[in-house]
Amino acid sequence: MKKILMIFAFVFLTVGLVACGGSTEDPTTPVDTDDPTLLPGQIEITYASWDLGSPESEEPNMQRLMIKAFEEAYPNIKVRIIERPKVPGTNDDLGWNEFLAARASTQTLPDVFQADNIPFYVINDWAYNLTTIANADDEYINVSEDIRGVATYDGKVMAIPNAVHYAGYVVNETLYDRQGQNYPEIDTNMTDFLAYTKAAANHASNNNNGVVGLEGIEHIIHWYPAQLNENYRWFTLSDNGFNLNSTEFTTTMELYRTLRTDTTYVLEALYDAAGAEDSQIEIGNIFPEGDPFNNGNILAKWFYSWDFGWIQSNINSGQYTWDLEFIGTPVVNGNKRVPIVADFYTIASNSSHPEEAYLLAKWMGFGKDGYLKRVELSETVPGISQVNFAPIQNDEELLDAYFNLYPNFQGLRTIIETGTFIVEPPKYLPGYIAARYTGTYDAENKMSDILVKLMAGEVALADIRTQLNTRANALYNEARNSFENALQNK
Fold first, then answer.
1. For residues 451 and 445, what is the distance between their CA atoms, to the nearest angstrom?
2. Would residue 19 count as lying in a domain?
3. Which N-terminal residues, if any, form the signal peptide (predicted)?
């Protein structure tokens, strides 16, 4: 957290120095004027996100079209987009938090902005407390508690979801059938999932007739512990902190290492073995030429639901002639808690119109009317991409609209309608980035370094279990304490 605050201080100082330098054209310095086109009784709210594309682009942008549709639906509200400036002398966008810091320094934060670090916004008093507004909204309450709850702290709603992406395995049912094996389904347990895939794979061919078994095991260390213990969330997190010294994490690492070293059906293991010194394995002799997934020659591969657009397009065009299905993560001990990545909107603490800002954020994210408009646009506007996230509400009409676009992924519908979820934490959990990646483990390693070595088998969990857990929780608690102190004032 000290590092985060130092970064903010540096950004603030930089903005101040630039302003003092007298350059009125510096793109990091916000200069706003009142919009003379406002009609009597009309209010203006401002909006910023990182997915708007260039305003000069001739290609249609879904977010800009959605804002235009919002203004048509709510003629009393005018939305002004705050474009993110470029780094001076380059074509690169200014860093997101640097952009927000520049706006915050002059009390001109956008009324609605995408959130990549909600705790950071709370600590710096950039986030509006939405509790009263959100809890009075039946549609917000209809969002799964697993999703909306992660941005609610001590009962205070500090951000609202604007997109949810589901993670798990896409299985090639046709290929399992061809190999004479059962294919995994939504309710298949982990033991059977691995057994079916191992039996159907062929990593031993030397004439390019091989069949790839499993690809995508990295996130097992994140989602698997929560299947073994219902009190755990992502990466063993519980109400008391991380539990990396637990039997559940030990079991998880044992499974991961078993997979990481089984070259008979795990692609990552085969790549490791092929890359070893004096290896006799030639990947080019095992499988047909080309990408295994595009060839229909991989049994199970990890994907996020944002990939379904191009996959469904290839199915629709006839490029993929095999049956694919999304099963999420397999069942473990009767538990199926599917991992998701959630995106959020924050309403600015300096907003003069928080109710209207909430209305826009809802329209752009979880709201029913807005989502149906998004589907309509994706079906009627030439050149626009299909909706790339499933409905955030469990609503039959919304699900029908989405799965009309994605008819080959009905497994996801079952997951949405009946499942429980664990949410990847970087955007909402104070200290997670430090505890998992950037924090110091010891003099030679960051947390990410030691975990990479653990996953590669270069260090044993038994030798680092206690220190790993201690360091993760120290980093987490330092950030959490700063965050909770700031939250008390919201």
1. 9
2. yes
3. 1-19
Residue 212: CA atoms inside 13 Å, Cβ hemisphere, count? 28
Does residue 41 register a pLDDT over 90?
Answer: no
The SS3 of residue 414 is helix
Least confident window among 9-13, 190-194, 312-316, 458-462? 9-13
Q: How far apart (Å, rounded) are the C-alpha atoms in residues 244 and 250?
A: 8
- Contacts (Cβ under 8 Å, ≥6 apart) of 468: 244, 245, 441, 450, 454, 461
* Confidence tier at 26 by pLDDT (50, 70, 90): very low
Please state, for a pLDDT cut of 70, what percent of the chain lies above it.
93
Global pTM value: 0.89
Residue 449 domain-assigned?
no
What are 306's two structure tokens? 């944002």
Q: Which residues contact 368 (CB under 8 A, 6 or more apart)?
A: 139, 393, 395, 397, 398
User: Has residue 253 been placed in a domain?
Assistant: no
Residue 25 forms part of a structural domain: yes
- DSSP bridge partners of 156: 153
pLDDT score, position 121: 97
In Å, what is the CA distance from 377 to each residue of 66, 225, 309, 358?
Answer: 8, 40, 15, 22
Terminal CA-to-CA distance of the chain, rounded, Å? 19
| Residue with token string 């986030």 | 127
CATH of the domain at 362: 3.40.190.10
For 236-245, how does the pLDDT look when each residue is reduced to its tens digit (9 = 90+)?
A: 999 999 999 9
CA distance 275 to 259: 17
What is the C-alpha separation between 204 and 263, in angstroms, rounded? Answer: 9
* The residue to which tokens 């220190």 are assigned: 467
* One-letter amino acid for residue 28 of the chain: T
| Predicted confidence band of residue 338 (pLDDT cuts 50, 70, 90) | very high
State which residues form the domain around 89. 10-164+344-414
Number of domains in the chain: 1
Which whole number is the average pLDDT over 433-462? 98
Note the pLDDT tens digit of each residue in 298-310.
999 999 999 999 9
What is each CA distance from 298 to 213, 282, 290, 333, in whole angstroms? 6, 18, 12, 26
Report d(CA 143, CA 367) in Å as an integer: 10
Rounded distance between C-alpha atoms, residue 27 and residue 46, angstroms: 18
Q: How far apart are CA 73 and CA 368, in angstroms?
A: 13
Q: Which amino acid is at 254?
A: E
DSSP H/E element including 244: none
Q: Which of 328, 344, 393, 391 is nearest to 167 (CA)?
A: 328
